[in-house]
Known about the structure:
Layout: H1 17-32, H2 37-54, H3 63-75, H4 81-98, H5 102-107, H6 123-131, H7 136-148, H8 152-156, E1 163-164, E2 171-174, E3 183-186, H9 189-202, H10 220-234, H11 243-255, H12 260-267, H13 272-275, H14 277-281, H15 293-296
Antiparallel strand pairs: 1-2, 2-3
Helix pairs in contact: 1-2, 2-4, 6-10, 7-9, 7-11
Amino acid sequence: MKNKNYQNEDTRFSSSEQGKKALKNFQQRLRVANRSEQTVRNYLRSIEALMNFHEEMPEDLDVDQIVDFLHDLKIEKERNWRTIKIYVAGIRWYYQHVLNDEDTAMLIPYPKEEKTLPKILSREELSDLFDACKNPKHRIMFRLMYSSGLRRGELIRLTPEDIDTKDGKCRVRILRSKGNKDRYTVLSKKVLEELREYYMTCHPKTYLFNGRYKSQSMSSEGLRHALAAAVKKAGIRKDVNMHILRHSFATHCIEHGMNIKTLQYLMGHSSVLTTMIYLHISQMPLEHAFSPIDKWEA
């Protein structure tokens, strides 16, 4: 292993002819396997980082060298277990499906899950956040993300046709979401009126929320920048990211009495166990709870 600063080097092993050829082949295989574009990007990043860390091709590495790379991610780069899990998934896929090396793939350890509860914003904080948006487009984007429980990628890929109000419906169509699954989710009647006003003003074409050009979607970086500006102006001291709006949606739905199976469908979760985590951060378990001292002590 020659280069610990593999992510910041101008000249990297992955930029060599051999490295570029391997990454292109990996990308083609992932797309033929019908993996989502986000998965393609994540898995390519994992193999690119592995090659740059050791300055060798993956087929020339043994399991101990792969573990060295993962150890560096955890200890030196201080990546969390979720990020490392994505790297492991990408590296395993490469060894299984590109190198046909099932034995090595199975020896690469997944990180142990560190159970943490999602952070959410209160209703008051959400109101402050929405009101702090200088750009009306940003305000409607964040309100739609929260009110429909959308992921960041789902929002920026929306088209005007995905807002379904025909035959009295009021819903949002999500195409090719996580796991390449399609689904519908709820659309707030209040937000629908705001969307109609936005549409009449901005006349979006290809994407519901375009970037600098109407043929391009809003970038993830642009969305993050807009959120950071609104959070700062609203005076919210929590560490707020795009996913916190989705967590808040799920938690508040439960608090208002939504059935857990209905919420599972709206969130696009494969397992209801994933959805049930929001029970732990909602007020529902405490609604009829009491302290025994208040029952007997005068």
